[in-house]
Write a structure and sequence with these properties.
Layout lengths: L6 E6 L2 H11 L4 E2 L5 E5 L4 E6 H8 L14 E4 L3 H13 L3 E8 L5 E6 L5 E6 L14
Parallel strand pairs: 1-4, 5-8
Antiparallel strand pairs: 2-3, 3-4, 6-7, 7-8
InterPro entries: Glyas_Bleomycin-R_OHBP_Dase, Glyas_Fos-R_dOase_dom, VOC_core
Protein name: VOC family protein
Organism: Marinobacter halodurans
């Protein structure tokens, strides 16, 4: 197997609200998509948005609302602490809820968290030990 993550699909309560958040608020480039789903290109992977009930039906599981921490976060690594602060401000201005302000963290980096309109948690982080940038980035 050649390990990779091709796409993350989020089940959302209001597709149009989530499209507006990611496309208009955060500036994610949207691909041509059918009306019932939205796809965004993210430097080597894609983000999909699909109605929560429809996604649960496709998977074959109940669409019950999760309670508490879902057990995962989505991370966006950035080249500097200043970039983390800037992108966090953009996310909050777009309608995200600030969960944890960017700050120095125990592992030696700098990170903070926001919640999107459906409660998905995004970490914005700068790791001074390595840079995870676009796949075509030779120097990071």
């Amino acid at each position: 197997m050649n390990p990779r993550m091709s796409m993350v699909t989020l089940g959302v309560a209001n597709l149009q609200l989530s499209i507006a958040f990611y496309r208009d608020g955060l500036g994610f480039p949207q691909l041509d998509s059918p009306p019932s789903v939205a796809f965004f290109t993210l430097n080597g992977t894609w983000l999909g948005l699909y109605g929560r009930d429809a996604l649960a039906e496709d998977v074959g599981v109940p669409a019950s609302t999760p309670a508490g921490f879902p057990g995962f976060t989505i991370a966006h690594n950035l080249p500097s602490e200043v970039d983390v602060d800037r992108v966090m401000a953009e996310a909050v201005a777009a309608g995200a809820t600030l969960i944890k302000s960017p700050q120095k963290v125990f592992w030696g980096g700098y990170s903070g968290y926001f919640e999107d309109p459906d409660g998905y948690l995004w970490e914005l982080a700068h790791n001074p030990f390595f840079w995870i940038g676009p796949p075509d980035s030779a120097s990071g």
